[in-house]
Amino acid sequence: MMINSVYSNKDIFLRELISNASDALDKRRIETLQNSELAENTKPEIKIDINSDAKTLSVSDNGIGMTRDELINYLGTIAKSGTKEFLKAAKDDSTKQELIGQFGVGFYSVFMVADKVEVVTRKLGTAETYKFTSGGDGSYTIEDAPQRDECGTTVTLFIRENKEDGAKNYLEEWTIREIISKYSDFISWPVIFKDNTINSQKAIWQRPDSEVSEDDYKEFYKHLTHDWQDPLMHIKINAEGSTNFKGLLFVPSQAPFDLFMNRESGGVSLYINRVFIMNDCKYLIPEYMRFIRGVIDSEDLPLNISREILQEDAFIRVIRRSTQRKIFNEFKKLLEKDREKYIKFWLAFGKIFKEGIVQDHDHAKNILDLALFRTTNSDEWTTISEYEARMKPDQQGIFCLTGRDSLAALKASPKLEQFINKGYEVLLMTDPVDEVILSDLRFILPDDAKKLLNISDDEVSAQTDDEKKDAEKKLKALEKDFEPLKKIAKEIFADKLEDVRPSVSLTNSPVCLSGGMSFQMENIMRSVGQFVPPQKRILELNAEHPVIKKLVEMAKNNDKDEKVTDILKILYDQSLILEGAAPDDPADFAKRVNEVVALALGE
Ligand code: ADP
């Protein structure tokens, strides 16, 4: 009962045994390297057998093996004190997970599937063979056994019959084959089952670069991800120091279709000493790097680490930090060296990567420096620093425009006019996350002198102080003339608009909406279930535009009120469309436009 409750997935008993066998082979290799007279002339391998008549499953290795004392110390102690302590501690759920790490329950996990276990072993360089037997109840026996030909260990499990619904049969060939291939693919020793080597043994990340071709990396990537396309790039990590780990990470060349839906999963698998521990270990990589695929292989973590511990583990945190740093560096290099490839990366994953600016304030600046933006200057992508190099000396900040998800729609925004006319460059930000970045930026980068300025904000202007004063004067002079038109407009849009006022900063467009939250932001907030109060905006009328001039005239002369109303409504709807929103009543809008068209055609 107790043993079963520790691990959620019983299959891992086999992983533990294969990993012990693999360790034993590693130890034999090192031992014989140091003491060549000990060398035994056998090919190192791990063999797995099932015997359905005897109902046994065995894992054999010709590794280092164990002496009698070692059997007692390594396996006996676990079977005895480990079991007792564990039985006591397991009653207390909160300490249970901790204890998995403390006691070597790796071997002990066999009792999840077996009633009895026999271990027959001969230590390298000795003649005696021993048989250890335990029933997982805290007792064990050790006896002399007939000499094994090869050094090493055979662990035989007497598989318990499990009649539960959906229980796996660990005596079934395909079940075992599947588990072996899942857990041991990159074990560096051959794992043999039914005369076949099941694992590919390519711990490709452990091999020096000179031994691995570009094609090998591609093949491994495809094997790992089931992607049919080549990866865009790979990143190798070889960290030595406070924690030792190796990593082989990939940036796919295209985003999988579910990347945006599936926020939780990360694509990096955790290996510990070449033993597969888990897929999608999200603790290894921040959420905004979830598009990265690959393997991290740690030397410092215990094999039987639980998910709960992983989340808190200090080694994992160090791995995560240095992996993150490495990824930033690699992206920086790519940006500098291969712009074309970098743009491909950015098109596929930039949106996700940028989420980090909001999620990870410590690295917000790094991410911002790596971000590419569209601009009013050209059709090329630009970085913030490239933009800064082109900034005019008098410029108060980096001008940005958000609010629409299409570049063409953004370029059509009347808000750009005054900036473009004065020769300023404006970054065109089409991703919803840009909107959040801009609204959060002062909290994220408080010390950054050159701020990103959203030109939709009323305070952000292309005008100098003198020009502003000038404009105010002009507007003051217009006030009286505008009064009648303003009155009509305010009546029509009483429940929709905060104000209607003349503007002298627009050039081509007759009207423009300002104030309030952008429509895109409104949509984002509503889509995440936040309440957004109705936004009352300001309708700005371009005082210099012929249509507006005419309307002012008509309103002043108090004639054709109805026509003024119709045109104002069309203009208002137009301003909504230019903001990327829809007219309140599309049918009504179409009707009015058609009337104007008919008029123009002289009908
Ligand atoms: P862990 O592997 O985490 O130390 P285990 O309970 O799996 O814990 O194993 C305890 C110890 O028993 C191992 O550290 C190792 O020294 C020894 N051992 C287990 N299996 C083998 C094996 N196949 N060959 C040699 N030694 C083994």
Spatial order of the strands forming the largest sheet: 5-4-3-6-2-1-7-8
Report the average pLDDT across residues: 85
Tally the helices. Answer: 20
Portion in strands: 15-25%
Structural class: alpha+beta
**Helicity range:** 40-55%
Q: Tell me the overall shape.
A: elongated
**Major pleated sheet:** 8 strands, mixed
Distance between the termini: 89 Å
Could you tell me the radius of gyration in angstroms? 35 Å
Low-confidence stretches: 1-8, 93-104
List the ions, cofactors and other small molecules found in this model. Answer: adenosine-5'-diphosphate
How does this structure look, described?
It contains 20 helices and 20 strands. The chain is of the alpha+beta class. Strands 5-4-3-6-2-1-7-8 form an eight-stranded mixed sheet, with helices on one face. The protein has a five-stranded mixed sheet with strand order 9-10-13-11-12, with helices on both faces. The protein is elongated. The chain starts with a helix and ends with a helix.
Question: Key terms for this structure?
Answer:
alpha+beta; binds adenosine-5'-diphosphate; disordered N terminus; 5-stranded mixed sheet; 17% strand; 43% helix
Brief summary of the model shown:
The protein has 603 residues and is α+β, with helices and mostly antiparallel strands. It has 20 helices and 20 strands.
